[in-house]
Amino acid sequence: AKEDGRGVARFFQADMDAKVQARRELEMDLRAALVRGEFELHYQPVVAVESGEVSAFEALLRWRHPTRGMVPPDRFIPVAEQVGLIVPIGEWVLRTACREAANWPATIRVAVNLSAVQFKGGKLAAIVASALAEAGLAPRRLELEITESVLLRDSDSNLNHLNQLRALGTRISMDDFGTGYSSLSYLRSFPFDKIKIDRSFVKDVAGSQGDGAIVRAVAGLGTSLGMITTAEGVETREQLARVVADGCTEIQGYLFGRPVPAGEVQDTLERIRLM
Ligand code: C2E
Ligand code: CA
Ligand code: CA
Ligand code: CA
């Protein structure tokens, strides 16, 4: 049994070493990616229910890796957050999104995802202000999406930052609503402009009575608090009909369009106008 134990320990050690090694490689690759310009933003349309037109595009980060192809964000953002690289990467995202959105019609906003790590260090508001000024983008056209992790840790200091961002004139959205532990209490701690109802509730909105009731309740709550409520991950006409009936005021999902490179934003606008 003793022998076995050592064998298992050695096995885990080797496994750990491999994991540490893979992470180090990913970290080095990420550093190089920023310098080599391997990141790009893809934009997914968000449609306003009332007008049936695009109100915004959400900027979603993509990594065009020279050998591994297009790497999705879930594969590298967690490591970028752990090693702090999300700070310079996030700054690149903000500057690029503002610059690209400045070429769109003035009625269209751009939404950028912020990591909780970007709130550390106290420079976020200055970076956002300079990204807006550099691009000549009106602050009202920038939406900043945060998840509850921003309000979970260092919440006093982060709330202070959120207020600074709001003071610049940007809009603040609560992303992935309903997936955390106490989403409702976060609605009380900050006056969000928008609630994005997580895709997991929209998925079964037509099939499960419970999910339908939740979407309806959140949409009602958001509306009575003066917030926009966006249904995420709408893929079918049936889901669209349900979330609209449930009172959501904006729709995002593959039904209206997948994220596209910046060069396809105009085409997407025209295609949705004709829908
Ligand atoms: P998110 O902010 O919740 O973004 C929505 C995700 O759902 C995107 O995945 C989008 O492509 C996907 N999606 C949209 N509509 C549908 C649909 O109808 N069906 C399905 N199955 N999926 C849909 P993506 O682009 O892979 O991004 C994943 C996550 O990575 C994002 O989730 C966000 O948390 C993070 N992320 C992306 N870009 C950035 C960034 O620039 N900075 C930070 N900090 N995080 C980012
Ligand atoms: Ca988001
Ligand atoms: Ca989301
Ligand atoms: Ca998410």
Automatic annotation (TrEMBL):
Protein name according to UniProt: PAS domain S-box-containing protein/diguanylate cyclase (GGDEF) domain-containing protein
Coiled-coil intervals, chain numbering: none
Domain EAL intervals: 23-273
Biological process according to GO: cellular response to nitric oxide
Listed transmembrane segments: none
Span of the entire protein shown here: 567 to 841 of 846
GO molecular function: cyclic-guanylate-specific phosphodiesterase activity
